[in-house]
Amino acid sequence: MVMSVINWFEDRQKFGGLIGAFLEEATRSSMTNERDRRISVNANKGLWARCDNCGNMLYVKFLKQNRSVCEECGYHLSMSSMERIELLIDPNTWIPLDEDMSARDILSFSDEDSYETRILLSQEKTGLTDAVQTGIGYLNGTLIALGVMDFHFMGGSMGSVVGEKITRLIEYATQRLLPLVLICASGGARMQEGTLSLMQMAKISSVLQLYQVQNKLLYISVLTYPTTGGVTASFGMLGDIIIAEPKAYIAFAGKRVIEQTLRQKIPDGFQAAESLFDNGLLDLIVPRNLLKGVLSEISGLYLSVPYNKN
Amino acid sequence: MASAVLPQSNSLTSAKCSLVSPSRNSNLNKVGVEASGEFLRLQSSKNGVNQSLHFGLVLRVGQEDGRGCRKPRKTTAMLKKGGRKTPDKEYPWPQKMKPEDLMGSPLRFLSRFKPLPQKPKPVHLPFELPLVDIQKKIQEVRELANSTGMDFSIQLNELQEKYDEVRRDLYSQLSPVQRLSVARHPNRPTCLDHVLNITDKWLELHGDRAGYDDPAIITGIGQIEGMSFMFIGHQKGRNTKENIYRNFAMPTPNGYRKALRMMQHAAHHGFPILTFVDTPGAYAGIQAEERGQGEAIARNLREMFGLRVPIITTVIGEGGSGGALAIGCCDKMLMLENSVYYVASPEACAAILWKTAAAAPQATEALKITAHELVKLDVVDEIIPEPLGGAHSDPLTTSMNMKTVIMKHMRELLKMEPDPLLAQRVAKFRKIGSYQEGVKVDPRFKRNMKPRDAPMEMGEPKLLPSHVHQNLELSLKTASTAATTSE
């Protein structure tokens, strides 16, 4: 089936645009799931995606089935937050929190566009209210609190809404004694909210102090491509266990900033997950297809501690 | 002096000598050989310098000086013996101490931060040009008065009044861009300048006990009004040489770990913590990343909310993002009038959002980084006034103003018990942030958010009223009742 579709694709070049249009229509109607259609249309305006690592053409439908991992080289392509929730949470157990929270233009910030316009455009384009989805659900039978950041919304930048949603999630987990998993993907702090974004780092770290240190609960952070700036310098690196995806870009200062400071070229793979692992900054590198199992095994190990007398 | 051919010596040495290359062997025969135990010492006939032959490897290869004798290169050993002495590391105490010196507090001999030998050159910021012109005119009139002997005092007084008026006008209405340039002024008093002005005694402590003493962060114990406090701050240099030594107040992970060690030490013993923020940001370098710059900052952020002593942070210059926040999670945040606190430097922000670094002034206006704007956003608790002309024109008055405000807040915080103090610190940061909720959102804007698919039996997740606030109210109530009953 795959081979014939590839042949069709090649033939499309020969026969021209009209048959190409027909092809999309034909395959589009065969997709039963409403969601699938939206996502495939969003992804590169077509049915094919290109792997960033090996340059291979990947059929989007099969790519999604394979959890956005390239079949040829195993490279982990970016994954939307909805897909990540479906990857980790057992079906029919998800309860989202604070779905309707959205950002406010407190500083009346306006660069080329006003901040308000940018928020509305991003919400329209990505179908997300802000850069994080939080909620609770069962992971292999254990109820966990899960927060997933999404890089598609304004580069995953952390503003007041991200700070507030994650803080409320951690407070809920503290009250209900749930393990916490935060999946991080961010370009840094949201500059349009100024110093308020900076204080979100402190806010989340303060509730993590109550959660981890005073209440001794388990927090696992999963760092995905890319995790930079304020998130690395706050909750990303505070997990009891820090897991990274293979070849994820994890940094505090961006590559360009370091090159400007030092005026020299940075070696390749400098801020990749493997390099951080060698420098002792991560606990584990876990591929996506094993992630759910590993998370449930880890929480099982922490629940069966025999000497809980402290 | 045995002029023995080397292979004839005992088996131990011969085994080692065989490693020496044949070309050098011929030369070695011409110098004296003294076999002594484990290794041979080759003594040049010229000047008695030893060239040790460890396991057959010649360590120093000198040049032949024509007569076939090898001339050894000067080694450090040689320097120490005869000729020029290598200078000792400079110590902060005088070489020869007089008995009078030992009378007062010995702590002043331990501080390496001495006043600069020359007064720093005055630097004029771009917006101060009118003042510079008037100053020049005053100078000209004075010279004229001196050279001709005529009385120009009326003109001088007029010019002086004009100077004061223009200065007052300029400095009472500074724009954010102007305040940023004052915050970055090269002669602005540094952390140690302020600390030495406000403390009666000062003892600087060093090191992160794990490999490095970062000069960009200053830690130490100081005494004000008979009470000891722990001081931590970013230290900029007062001139270019110092700035390079201090790395322009950009700390490495070691600096943050040093600060954390000191803060935990302070909480352990009961020193309240005073921190001073003055940094362009954390150092962005390869080694800093490899050693975990993000992790060091994150750990500081989390641990500061668990320290059971009062913490007051004062921003004395520029507060650069995470690098500043890592020592800035406090009970009370104070800022000097002309200091700034930003999430990203205006230049970086302009380059990213406006796509050109030339838009830095617009970025400065838009980001709302000055003290007055941050008080409105409820991030900063109080502004410390600076004398007219900026802190660099009168450092002592600035330090005294700072001392008054810090001690006022400290006296309030010292009355609190640890648990309500921690709860209040968390509450201070908990309320920062601006969002909207409860407003109906267009379903198109939520189409990629996973809706609820759990059965109704799982219930409705209701967050109980934040237990932080509950604990805070409870502790404040118990504290106040305890106070009233004790009276």
Give a verbal description of the structure:
The complex is a heterodimer of chains A (310) and B (487). The relative contact order of chain A is 0.09. Chain A has a seven-stranded mixed β-sheet with strand order 3-5-6-7-8-9-10, with helices on both faces. Chain A has a two-stranded antiparallel ribbon with strand order 1-2. Chain A has two domains: 47-77, no CATH class; 78-304, 2-enoyl-CoA Hydratase, Chain A, domain 1 (Alpha-Beta Complex), CATH 3.90.226.10. Chain A has 310 residues and is of the alpha/beta class. In chain A, a hairpin with a 2-residue loop joins strand 5 and strand 6 (142-149). The N and C termini of chain A lie far apart (60 Å). Chain A is 42% helix and 16% strand. Chain B is an alpha/beta fold. Chain B has 18 helices and 15 strands. Chain B has helices spanning 11-17, 22-30, 76-81, 129-148, 153-172, 176-183, 191-198, 240-245, 253-269, 286-290, 293-304, 321-325, 346-354, 360-367, 371-376, 395-413, 418-430, 467-486, and strands at 32-36, 39-43, 50-54, 57-58, 63-64, 70-71, 201-205, 217-224, 227-234, 273-279, 311-320, 332-336, 340-342, 382-384, 435-436. Chain B is globular and about 100 Å long. The termini of chain B are far apart. At the A-B interface, helix 5, strand 3, strand 4, helix 6 and strand 5 of A face helix 10, helix 11, helix 12, helix 13 and helix 14 of B. Strand 4 (102-103) of chain A pairs antiparallel with strand 15 (435-436) of chain B. Chain B: Residues 77-98 are annotated as: Disordered.
Summarize the structure.
With 310 residues, chain A is of the alpha/beta class.
Task: Chart the SSEs and their pairings.
The complex is a heterodimer of chains A (310) and B (487).
Chain A: H1 2-15, H2 17-30, H3 34-42, E1 48-50, E2 57-59, H4 60-65, H5 81-88, E3 95-97, E4 102-103, H6 115-126, E5 132-139, E6 142-149, H7 160-176, E7 180-186, H8 195-214, E8 219-227, E9 241-244, H9 255-262, H10 273-278, E10 284-285, H11 288-303
Chain B: H1 11-17, H2 22-30, E1 32-36, E2 39-43, E3 50-54, E4 57-58, E5 63-64, E6 70-71, H3 76-81, H4 129-148, H5 153-172, H6 176-183, H7 191-198, E7 201-205, E8 217-224, E9 227-234, H8 240-245, H9 253-269, E10 273-279, H10 286-290, H11 293-304, E11 311-320, H12 321-325, E12 332-336, E13 340-342, H13 346-354, H14 360-367, H15 371-376, E14 382-384, H16 395-413, H17 418-430, E15 435-436, H18 467-486
Parallel strand pairs in B: 9-10, 10-11, 11-12, 11-13, 12-14
Antiparallel strand pairs in B: 1-2, 2-3, 3-4, 5-6, 7-8, 8-9
